[in-house]
Amino acid sequence: MYTQSLNTPLAQETGVKVVDNPAYEKEFNDKLDRQESIEAKDWMPDGYRKTLIRQISQHAHSEIVGMLPEGNWITRAPTLKRKAILLAKVQDEGGHGLYLYAAAETLGVSRDELFEALHSGKAKYSSIFNYPTLNWADVGVIGWLVDGAAIMNQIPLCKCSYGPYARAMVRVCKEESFHQRQGYDSLLVMMERGTQAQRDMVQDAVNRWWLPSIMMFGPHDSESTHSDQNMRWGIKRISNDDLRQKFVDATVKQAEVLGVTLPDPDLKWNEKTGHYDFGKIDWDEFWNTVNGHGQCNVDRLKDRVQAWEDGAWVRDAAIAYNEKSAARAQKKAA
Amino acid sequence: MSRKEFPLWEVFVRSKNGLDHKHCGSVHAPDPKLALQAARDVYTRRQEGVSIWVCRADHIVASDPDAKPELFDPSEDKIYRHPTFYQLPDEVNHM
Q: For A151-161, what is each residue's pLDDT tens digit?
């Protein structure tokens, strides 16, 4: 799924000592100028490290929290085929979370610290997962719009200056394309071969997910405080508003082919700019949701924490088993 | 919270016979068997591999980025190690 550009304070301290050295800093900047990747053990400014930890971990949290709204429908998928597809998709989201946690860990934080930040509510995840999945069409619309917006956001990250993040993103993007296409495909079936009630269901889902989807690109460029620095660092390549516009432009045609209406009366082609204009976004709702007061924040976090706590005895048993068999092997050898 | 964090393992996947194993990421797991299982689930969901290696991350010895000049620069001025250094007569230059 995906990351949102939220400039929240860093939740974790890495314990990585930063040596201020102008020669190192020059080398770091030269590498950026040459479009060379920065790798885990290379010198990097403290701010670069912190920004990456925040962004990559928010991204990872979004992936695993994103499993919850869709997982809600696995047992109720309408056919075995759709169930198998949805299972594969939700498994992918878990995988994406794991690639990204591993990338964040190369910067000096531990997996448990990252989980702790998520579970305590210190770390953020994408606001989109705090909306409920009310009917089966929501699953298709999440694939089409939410994963579609995610792809738009993630393609530039494949060229991010930080090597481990960029490599993880290449893998994520390849798989994400399946997510978007399966979603659109399932909606197409409902629109073309479904009953009127099923078509209404699709339209209802589109009505609810459209605005949250275009909010996924984050605040307007004018409100996005660290944008310039992140562009310089090669962490961000395209601005929030430009990405949002690209997404709107691409989606209009897809909605038309599908036969649904995007719920925005101000959405219209602008001959002069060569783009679609769209209506105002309710940023109060966005910040409310980000800051924990969305429709599902409490449930999502509760489910996530419960899964972690319920699994504790399994993790403990696995470690105990390993220690015991290692000790036994040592005794045998002695 | 769990008593201890699972150790980190680096994962290497051979995409098909005839090619090298290539580093593709890492997983946390308590022991070698589960590390292999996790690597299979996380990194080969779409037939990306025919063979997996996992190795405890703390068993890898890596060169220091600061040592890059002393390690790798000396080969910069040894262009005679490359076949293209030798210009031969046209008739035999495909050698």
A: 999 999 999 99
Query: Distance between CA atoms of A287 and A293, rounded to whole angstroms?
Result: 9
ipTM of this complex prediction, to 2 decimal places:
0.85
DSSP designation for B56? E
Contacts of A91 in chain B (CB under 8 A): 45
* Nearest one of A154, A215, A157, A144 to A2, comparing CA atoms: A154
B8 contacts in A (CB within 8 Å)?
A: 102, 105
Distance from CA of B65 to the nearest CA of A (A): 6
Task: Using a CB–CB cutoff of 8 Å, tell me whether A325 touches chain B.
Answer: yes
Q: Nearest-5° angle of CA A149, CA A201, CA A184?
A: 35
Cβ of A328 under 8 Å from any chain B Cβ?
no
Cα separation, A248 vs A87, whole angstroms? 29
Residues with Cβ within 8 Å of A102's Cβ and at least 6 positions away in sequence, in order, are: A164, A168, B8, B25, B26, B27
Residue in chain B closest to A313 (alpha carbons) equals: B2
Is the per-residue pLDDT at A6 higher than 50? Answer: no
The closest CB to that of B62, out of A41, A167, A318, belongs to A41
Give all strands of the β-sheet with B51-56 in edge-to-edge order: B21-28, B8-14, B51-56
E strand or H helix that includes residue A231: helix A227-232
State pTM to two decimals.
0.90
